[in-house]
Write a structure and sequence with these properties.
241 residues; 5-stranded mixed beta sheet; 7 strands
């Protein structure tokens, strides 16, 4: 991933990174435009200062109401527009309770929350730099960012690699604590550890392959759910140098 910018450190924000510098044919994704992360509940003064320095203008929060109430973003005086786009048709707990696999979850997001995925794209078009986040920045953020980058023309291998890097950025102590708590709540969940901590490259590859089989390409998926050709062209102009 030649040209990848230095990863900004945002104090108190988990799994924060810039999606710039990813290969896109002979070009690359534009740095400093589209960021991704987990929630901003732990954000401190230094973290807020970094977000101001990045010039952040919009935050798109993909969490449901219960998640936001439990861990509200601590943006305080950071001058951003906040856009709420809850991306699960059900709750996070329902996926664990029902024992849904990651591939099934991602297909569910793409199919059942398609109009909201388009809302996210339009939020990215409205303001940049923009940060897209959920609770840990792995699944809802992973699917949405993958669709944005792939539709903009970023190479699929780079899209998959960007998704996969998430699990290397989740602290081991955080994973152990979260898995133990979730196991106490959902003792029969089959894939709990994978759901909570993993971002395997084959899962994202399979998601994009499935999308291609059913729609043709990520851009065609967005068109099928209401995004116009000029909006997709603008997405490419914004995200790719």
């Amino acid at each position: 991933m030649s040209g990848t910018p230095a990863m900004p450190s945002v104090s108190g924000a988990i799994n924060f990174r810039d999606t710039g510098g990813l290969p896109a044919g002979a070009s690359h994704s534009r740095p400093g435009v589209l960021f991704r992360s987990g929630n901003l509940f732990g954000l401190d003064g230094d973290g807020r200062s970094t977000l101001r320095e990045l010039g952040l203008r919009r935050v798109i929060d993909l969490r449901d109401d219960a998640e936001v109430a439990l861990e509200p973003s601590r943006l305080d005086d950071v001058p951003v527009a906040t856009q709420r786009v809850p991306l699960f048709a059900g709750s996070v707990a329902s996926f664990l309770r029902d024992g849904m696999s990651l591939p099934a979850m991602y297909r569910s997001i793409a199919e059942e929350s398609a109009p909201r995925v388009v809302e996210v794209v339009r939020g990215v078009l409205a303001d940049q730099p923009v940060l897209v986040h959920c609770t840990i920045g792995k699944d809802r953020t992973g699917v949405t960012i993958a669709l944005l980058l792939a539709a903009a023309g970023v190479d699929e291998d780079a899209v998959v690699a960007d998704y996969a890097v998430t699990e290397t950025l989740l602290p081991a102590e955080r994973n152990a604590r979260v898995v133990a708590w979730l196991r106490s709540q959902h003792p029969d969940s089959r894939d709990l550890e994978i759901l909570a901590t993993r971002s395997p490259a084959p899962v994202m590859r399979g998601f994009l392959d499935d999308l291609r089989e059913r729609y043709g390409a990520p851009g065609d998926y967005l068109r099928a759910h209401g995004l116009a050709d000029d909006e997709i062209a603008e997405l490419r102009r914004i995200l790719v140098v």
